[in-house]
Amino acid sequence: MQIQVNSNHTIHTGETFERWATTELNESLRRFKDDITRIEVHMSEENSDKASNGHMRCTMEARLAHQEPVAVNHDAPSQDLAFRGASDKLKRLLEHTLDKLRDHRSRESIRRVEDLDAA
Is the pTM of this model over 0.70? Predict the structure, then answer.
């Protein structure tokens, strides 16, 4: 699972934040490591051009093997809270999406062998 951290021109994430973010995502999403090919994290500061304090936005996109990508975002007053909120949302979305697929695959077919033999 590859993790890429990006930020816009209004903030600087730095190597320390990138290393911490990678560790956090690897830990919290390790049960999905075989299903995720890449996670992109985008940090930005909203309202950076206004006089008020800007809010941080974290958008995370998970690229899934053999599935469409999924994405979430979270706004918060700090970079840390925005990241943690988006990470929690992504984990819940992956649990719902991937567990639903696994459940669907594990169900028995409505067609039975004896029905096919009779035809």
Answer: yes
Look up residue 70 and give its two tokens. 């999924």
State the residue for tokens 């053999």: 66
Residue 94 dihedral angles phi and psi, to the nearest 5°: -65, -40
Helix (H, G, I), strand (E, B) or coil at 38: strand
The C-alpha atoms of residue 73 and residue 59 are separated, in whole angstroms, by 4
Using DSSP's 3-state secondary structure scheme, residue 27 falls into: helix
12-41 confidence digits (pLDDT tens): 778 898 999 999 999 999 999 889 999 999
Alpha helices in the chain (DSSP H): 14-28, 79-106, 113-118
CA distance 119 to 109: 17
Q: Which of 37, 54, 53, 36 is nearest to 45 (CA)?
A: 54
Phi-psi category of residue 39: left, alpha or beta, with phi > 0 → left and psi -120 to 50 → alpha: beta
